[in-house]
Amino acid sequence: MPITPFHLGPGVFQKALAPRATNLLLYGVASLAIDAEPIIKGVAGLFGVDLGPLHTWTHQLEWMLIIALACAIVWALLRLTSWPVAVFTAAGAATTHWLLDSLMHGGGDMPLLYNTRGYGTDIAHGIAIWGFLLGTPFLIAYYRTPIENWLRRELRLPRSNQSRSIDGK
Ligand SMILES: [Zn+2]
Fold first, then answer.
1. 104 or 6, higher pLDDT
2. What is the three-class DSSP state of 161?
3. Are 53 and 31 a contacting pair, CB within 8 Å?
4. Under 8 Å CB-to-CB from 35, ≥6 apart: which residues?
């Protein structure tokens, strides 16, 4: 699924379920890296260059895991997040990418060995959109206090003494 924003749906959901263990930016970068092949081939196609099927080995589950983990290693080495968070995020990005793309492209040009049968794009988009719908309220709940404090500062409202985030930080 070269339209990477759809992959962020389950990413938002994972972030909502495990906010401290998920790095959403890494999730997006890993999804983008996994989709490098269909993106490059798709762009070449726009210029009339046929580079073959959009999804080949890069869209088998084990290669998605390897690509995402490579991103995680770079992320952790750059100290953008901790190793456990990087690995957990990458594993989630790869498996949900595989699930969505299998549903969307299954029976099409994705390697069949690791595919479910294609059930069409609607289910894949449905999962992605539900990820957003279910994940966003969790995220808002989690970040409510920082957002509220920022608004109070900007609007010069008195600080609420009930301002406390879920984890008490
Ligand atoms: Zn993809």
1. 6
2. coil
3. no
4. 1, 2, 4, 7, 97
If you measure from the C-alpha of residue 163 to the centroid of ligand 1, how many angstroms do you get, rounded to a whole number?
A: 41
Higher pLDDT, 94 or 101: 94
pLDDT in tens, 18-46: 889 999 999 999 999 999 988 898 899 99
Examine the pLDDT at 162 and tell me if it is beyond 80: no
Q: Using the mean position of ligand 1's atoms as its centre, give its distance from the Cα of residue 81 in Å.
A: 24
- Amino acid at residue number 67: I
Q: How far apart are CA 8 and CA 12, in angstroms?
A: 6
Can you read off the two tokens belonging to residue 61? 């589950």
More reliable by pLDDT, 163 or 43: 43
Write down the pLDDT at residue 115.
44
Domain boundaries, the chain: 4-133
pLDDT at 99: 79
Q: How many other C-beta atoms are found inside a 10 Å radius of the C-beta of residue 105? A: 21
Burial of 136 (C-beta count, 10 Å sphere; 0-12/13-18/19+): middle
Q: CB–CB of 111/52 below 8 Å?
A: no
- Amino acid residing at 95: T
In this structure, what token pair is assigned to residue 97? 């990418």
Distance 11 CA to ligand 1 centre (A): 14
